[in-house]
Amino acid sequence: MQATLKTSVTFEGPGLHAGMPALMKVMPAKADTGIVFRRTDVPADVATLEARWDHVQVMPLNTRLVNEAGVTLSTIEHVMAALAGCGVHNALIEIDGPEVPILDGSSAAFVRGFVKAGLVRQTAPLRAIEILRDVEVTEGDAFARLSPATTLQIAFDIAFDDAAIGVQQKTLNMANGTFVRELCDSRTFCRAADVETMHAKGLALGGTMDNAVVVDGDRVLSPGGLRHSDEAVRHKMLDALGDLYTAGAPILGRYTGHKAGHNLTNKLLRALFADPQNWRWITCDPATAARLPGVGVSTADLDAVA
Fold this sequence. Notes:
By secondary structure, the protein is of the alpha+beta class. The chain has helices at residues 77-85, 108-117, 178-183, 192-200, 231-244, 262-273, 286-289, and strands spanning 3-5, 9-14, 21-28, 35-39, 48-50, 56-57, 64-66, 72-73, 91-95, 119-121, 127-131, 135-139, 142-147, 152-159, 167-173, 189-191, 213-216, 219-220, 251-258, 279-283. The chain has 2 domains: 3-121, Ribosomal Protein S5, domain 2, CATH 3.30.230; 127-304, lpxc deacetylase, domain 2 (lpxc deacetylase, domain 1), CATH 3.30.1700. It has 7 helices and 20 strands. Strands 11, 12, 13, 14, 15, 19 and 20 form a 7-stranded mixed beta sheet that branches. A 5-stranded mixed beta sheet has the order 2-3-9-4-5, covered by helices on one side. Strand 12 (135-139) and strand 13 form a beta hairpin. Helix 1 packs across helix 5 (231-244) and helix 5 (231-244) runs parallel beside helix 6. The mean pLDDT is 92.
């Protein structure tokens, strides 16, 4: 069965890139709504943005939605990951600005809010997207791939010159609260050398040491250091889960990312849906539903979260 929140949850804070403050309210929604954002600071007739892969505008550092009227909403990936990881299939999200609040740079605050609100099971059946054959896209030496699997699995590897990050790799089965326990508190990260460049491009204007991990060579500049020794690759996996949720339903398949990012994951979804032989809809029976992210998540899973 599909699920939505029992009660609304409100979040407030600046966006990472534009730095503009925003108030965001995540509300229950009817079955088959999916995840829908509504900008309250623009006229109502152009305010709606569906969180779908074909409404994603290619951006280098975040996932941005755009509707037919040209209205945009940036940096949706962390709240999308939290919705996927908590098993929320339907939600209406009102926000009074152009970017989702960055909060601490992870999905942890969103997860806490959703777990505290609780879920309501809806009578409508839950459908999932089953991957039928390998689909891969590349960009230079980076690639992203979806392969058949009975659960959602994410495998990711990264390589950075900065010794504080270096080479990291991780693979997780995302069933039964894994996202909450293993990934949701991992923060976005950047190199100190890149901060000035991003500022010059009008990006990361709301970034601080409190909402991003900043590294310089072998040093972690952010107070308190890392939450996990491999926090960087964990955050990449968090981003991937959020971006994959723009497919419009849970995915049953294995995602493999090698130096991948938001653009490549969206290109992968576009390649997936370009050929109907790549995938099919399935209606989840209890055994299949039990293998999806978010099933069985409780406050006990938050004990592992920073």
